[in-house]
TrEMBL record:
Belongs to the cycloisomerase 2 family. InterPro entries: Cycloisomerase_2, Haem_d1_sf, Lactonase_7-beta_prop, WD40/YVTN_repeat-like_dom_sf. Pfam families: Lactonase (PF10282). GO terms for molecular function: 6-phosphogluconolactonase activity. It comes from Hypocrea virens (strain Gv29-8 / FGSC 10586). This is Uncharacterized protein.
Length: 363
C-alpha cells in the first residue's frame, strides 16, 4: 500500500510516496518556495486546497494539489498577514482560517470562503494589563471538536486564549493562565471526535511538560481547570535541557505522543503516553510509557498516518530528514524506523540547511 506525503523545509515543498510493502519513501516533486513553509492547513471541504506561509515574512499562499500529476499550483497569495506566522487552522466549514504569529504575537483572522484568502482582522494576543512586561508569542490555534471555539496557545504570555469561532470577528471570550514559565506551544482536545471535549492536553515548550485541563462548556465559552502535569521525559531532569515540539492524540483516544528536541544527545525522541480515562472513582491520568529515537535532531513536527499505523517524523538536523515509526497494537513505537529519507538526499548545500519542519499524509 502506498501513501502520499507532503514534506516541507526552508525553500522547498516536496511530494513523496511512502510504500509500506517495500519500506521506501520516494521524492516525486521538489517545488522551490520563496521562504520557509513551516506549516500547512488543508481545507476541510477540499483536501486538494492547501494554505501555507513564509514564516520568515508575511505572505500567505494557497496551492492546488494534484497527486495524479504530482503538481502544486499556486492559486493565490496575500501580503496582508502578520510577520512570522507559524501555524494555520480552519473552522469546520473551511470559511475561516486563523494564523498564529510567533514573531508579532498576533492572531490573523482570514476569510477563506474562496481560495483567495482575505484578511478580516488581526487580534493582539497580549492583554495590555494582564500581560504587562511580557512579549506575546502566539504559537498555535486549535479548533475544539464542536467547532464552536478556537484555543490559541501563547508561548510568551503563558496563556490560552479562547475565541468564539461562530461570531464574525472571532473575539477572545476567555483567557486562561498556565504556570509561569511553561511556554504553551501546541495542544489537543480529548477525546478525539465530534462530541464536546472533556479535557485539553497542552504541550509546554519551556517546561517540557504536558498540562492537562478538565473542560466545562458554557453558553459563551469554555472553562479550564488544571487536572494534572506530566514530564515528557522518563528522567525529569532532562527537561531542563530541551524544548518540546509537537503533540498528537491517537484516533482511538488511548495514546498521546510528544516530541522532545533541542537536546544535547546525538538523536532526539518521541515520548509516548498511555491515557488512563476517568471513571466513577478515578480522574484521567497520563502514563509515560517510553521515549523512541527519531534518528535525527530537532523534531519540530510529526503526524500520524491516516490509518494510525505509523508516525511520520521530520527532523531539522541529523542523519535522517524523515523517518517512519511503526505503531504496535498497544500503541508503543518500534525502535527501528521502517523507512526514511536521509538528510543528504534532500539538503544539498544550497540556502537554508535545515531539514523538514512539516510532514503530513495527504489524499
Amino acid at each position: 500500500m502506498s501513501r502520499r506525503l507532503l514534506i516541507a523545509r526552508p525553500g522547498h515543498i516536496y511530494l513523496a510516496t511512502y510504500t509500506s510493502a517495500s519500506a521506501t519513501i520516494s521524492i516525486d516533486l521538489d517545488e522551490p518556495f520563496p521562504g520557509n513553509p513551516s506549516w500547512f492547513a488543508v481545507s476541510p471541504t477540499d483536501p486538494h486546497l492547501l494554505y501555507t506561509f513564509d514564516e520568515n515574512g508575511s505572505t500567505t499562499y494557497a496551492f492546488r494539489l494534484d497527486l495524479t500529476s504530482n503538481t502544486l499550483t499556486k492559486v493565490a497569495q496575500s501580503e496582508d498577514g502578520s510577520e512570522g506566522v507559524c501555524h494555520l487552522a480552519f473552522n469546520k466549514l473551511g470559511s475561516i482560517m486563523l494564523g498564529a504569529s510567533y514573531a508579532e504575537g498576533t492572531i490573523d483572522i482570514w476569510n477563506t470562503e474562496s481560495s483567495n484568502p482575505e484578511l478580516i482582522t488581526t487580534i493582539q494576543s497580549k492583554d495590555p494589563v494582564i500581560d504587562a512586561g511580557r512579549v506575546a508569542r502566539a504559537h498555535q490555534a486549535v479548533l475544539d471538536p464542536t467547532g464552536r471555539f478556537f484555543v490559541v496557545n501563547d508561548l510568551g504570555t503563558d496563556a490560552l486564549l479562547v475565541l468564539d469561532a461562530l461570531r464574525p470577528d472571532v473575539p477572545v471570550v476567555r483567557r486562561v493562565c498556565v504556570p509561569s514559565g511553561s511556554g504553551p506551544r501546541h495542544g489537543v482536545f480529548y477525546p478525539a471526535g465530534d462530541a464536546p471535549a472533556t479535557h485539553y492536553f497542552l504541550l509546554c515548550e519551556t517546561s517540557n511538560r504536558v498540562e492537562v485541563f478538565k473542560l466545562k462548556y458554557t453558553e459563551v465559552d469554555v472553562e479550564f481547570v488544571a487536572a494534572g502535569s506530566y514530564s515528557t521525559f522518563l528522567d525529569e531532569e532532562m527537561g531542563a535541557f530541551a524544548a518540546a515540539g509537537e503533540i498528537v492524540l491517537s484516533a482511538d483516544s488511548k495514546h498521546v505522543y510528544t516530541s522532545n528536541r533541542l537536546m544535547t544527545s546525538p538523536t532526539e525522541t518521541i515520548a509516548h503516553f498511555r491515557i488512563k480515562p476517568e471513571g466513577e472513582d478515578a480522574e484521567l491520568e497520563l502514563e509515560l510509557v517510553a521515549e523512541t529515537s527519531t534518528q535525527g535532531k530537532h523534531p519540530r513536527m510529526f503526524s500520524l498516518s491516516r490509518n494510525g499505523n505509523e508516525l511520520f517524523v521530520g527532523n531539522q538536523e541529523g542523519e535522517w530528514a524523515v523517518v517512519v515509526l511503526r505503531r504496535k497494537e498497544d500503541g508503543t513505537l518500534e525502535e527501528k524506523p521502517v523507512a526514511g529519507v536521509l538528510m543528504e538526499d534532500i539538503v544539498k548545500g544550497e540556502g537554508d540547511q535545515r531539514g523538514p519542519m512539516f510532514v503530513l499524509e495527504v489524499v
